[in-house]
Design goal:
Layout lengths: L1 H33 L8 H12 L6 H20 L1 H25 L10 H21 L7 H11 L4 H14 L10 H34 L1 E7 L3 H12 L3 E8 L4 E11 L3 H11 L4 E7 L22 H6 L1
Antiparallel strand pairs: 1-3, 1-4, 2-3
Helix pairs in contact: 1-4, 1-5, 2-3, 3-4, 3-6, 5-8, 6-7, 7-8, 9-10
Length: 320
């Protein structure tokens, strides 16, 4: 029991360290490459950006972001539950500190690190996407529109993804109404490109977040045909520490009975499997396919909410 608690503690510590690291990457990407060009992105970082430029920098992005997160969590507490709220408070605190520290550094510079707005926006989006992806992979949350989406999904059939896209696009569109000295036509001409940059950054962040999550979960399936199947199976068990399923088959051309090995492993472990097979039987026949999700011992855990069946009445029990 003590061993289990120790392992669980180490896993949790690793998760929290990676979450902190991911949120620091996000903070650097946002404050160094996106904020200096006055690009408003989705999420509460975007809301904080709107307030920051509306007040001419008097209210920092981090302050608005943290206040909005706490406000949303207060509304969401009864809907999404205690566990979600506590986990999100940690993420919201770290991301606000990260943005607050780096905002003071990078916004104090005389000019942006990368003056070309397109390259700066793309680089910032890449860093933000990687950072948020790392957070989600390790069961973290940065708050923001995640909270709104979680609340909506609890009370309606609208998907979380659709809710987040709608909220983010609306936040970016609000940058049209930031203070501007000039005519309405000049405002549109100046602000519309910034809105487009904001939407592009938001979608790049979402895409890279999904890539980081899916890459971590992506597995590979091998089907191996070899006359030395027993030796290959033993080596895969011993060296790759992966299970092997042995199936019976028949070659329809040769009419001979064959043994088929079926193996699942992480994508990064694929080279190990190939090396084992090649070292034993260079003439082995191998197929490799990608599996987007493998769940069970040694892989991912299924996070599925089971439907609650209503309790049967006395009359229904009597009929049964």
């Amino acid at each position: 029991m003590k061993k289990f608690n120790k392992e669980s503690l180490m896993t949790s510590a690793k998760d929290y360290l990676v979450i902190i690291f991911g949120l620091i990457i996000y903070g650097i990407g946002f404050t160094a490459f996106i904020l200096p060009h006055e690009i408003v992105i989705g999420g509460l970082s975007g809301v904080g950006t709107l307030v920051y430029f509306w007040t001419n920098g008097v209210i920092p992005v981090a302050v608005t972001q943290y206040a909005c997160n706490l406000l949303l969590l207060g509304f969401a507490y009864k809907i999404v539950g205690k566990t979600f709220v506590l986990r999100t408070i940690f993420g919201a605190t770290v991301i606000s500190i990260s943005i607050g520290v780096f905002e003071a550094i990078f916004m104090g510079l005389s000019k942006p690190l990368i003056e070309d707005i397109s390259m700066s926006a793309i680089l910032g989006a890449i860093l933000c996407g990687i950072g948020i992806g790392l957070v989600f992979v390790h069961n973290g949350s940065s708050g923001g529109t995640d909270i709104v989406a979680a609340m909506v999904s609890k009370v309606s059939n609208v998907s979380i993804g659709r809710t987040m896209i709608f909220c983010d696009m609306l936040i970016v569109l609000c940058s049209l109404f930031l203070p501007f000295e000039g005519t309405f036509g000049e405002r549109i001409q100046t602000r519309v490109p910034i809105v487009v940059y904001g939407w592009v950054v938001t979608f790049i962040v979402a895409y890279l977040t999904d890539m980081v999550i899916n890459t971590n979960r992506q597995a590979t399936q091998f089907i191996i045909f070899s006359t030395k199947w027993a030796e290959i199976a033993d080596r895969i068990n011993e060296e790759a520490h992966r299970g092997v399923t042995v199936l019976d088959g028949e070659g329809w051309y040769s009419k001979q009975q064959v043994k088929i090995l079926m193996v699942w492993c992480r994508k990064i472990e694929s080279v190990t499997i190939f090396r084992i097979v090649k070292s034993i039987d260079e003439n082995a026949f191998i197929t490799q396919t990608n599996a987007n999700g493998v769940y069970g011992k040694g892989f991912d855990t299924m996070h599925v909410k089971m439907k609650k069946h209503p309790a049967k009445t006395d009359m229904e029990l009597a009929k049964n």
